[in-house]
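Bench log, entry 3. Co-assembly request; chain sequences pasted below exactly as received.
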Amino acid sequence: MDAGSVAAAVAIGFLGGVTGGMLGVGGGILFVPALVFFLELSQVSGESTSLLAIVPVAVVGVWRQRGYGNVRLREGLTIGALSVPGVVAGTALANALSDRALALSFAALQIVLAIGLARRALRGAGGSAAS
Amino acid sequence: MSSRLLRLGIIGSLAGAFSGLFGVGGGTVIVPFLILWFGFEEREATGTSLAAIILIATLAAGIQGLHGHVHVVKGLVVGVPAIAGVVAGAALQQRVPQRAVSGAFAALLIVSAAVLIF
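Structure output for the full assembly:
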């Protein structure tokens, strides 16, 4: 792990944060590869460490987005609280199904959601910038 | 249980499972469902998603930390610049049309699906 690798991880970390602010995700999709490829963590350590890096991104992101009037805290915290059984169920599911089947199931879900959002973006109604 | 609470629970469960399995926050599931299923506008969906992610990622990181999988210093190497990034990204988001956020999100989902498949 040299200085160049660390610099690359810092840059990807920044981009992950930008993605978080723009799109409301934690940035893990960029953190995991940065941690695995540039900071030489195993896949499982990379995924776990990514979760830690996501926490401050989400906290600061909520603070900023609240300032812009974009956070419905009650719904957000309800989803977060109700994720606990999901984590447990997901773990059980992971033992019942193969990793490959899970990955393909989530990929299929994401493709369906992508089609829905793309159609909405192409319709374009109501898409004015904030004043 | 009201149907709204049930629907929020379904989103939370999917996001939690996705987060625990793949080391992400679950936002790629939460944001599209809030837009397409609850009728949230894009900016509201993304801000609300981050609130859910605080709880999901804290829980999941805590569990993984107990197993000794979390490397704090390396987490800070990507996490600290990401704090500056999220401030910039949120500011930028206020300047683009809401539907453009949906378009960009669709692209993110395709990339994420491709990562899962390949």
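Helices of chain A lie at 3-23, 28-38, 43-67, 73-81, 83-96, 99-123. The two ends of chain A are 46 Å apart (CA to CA).
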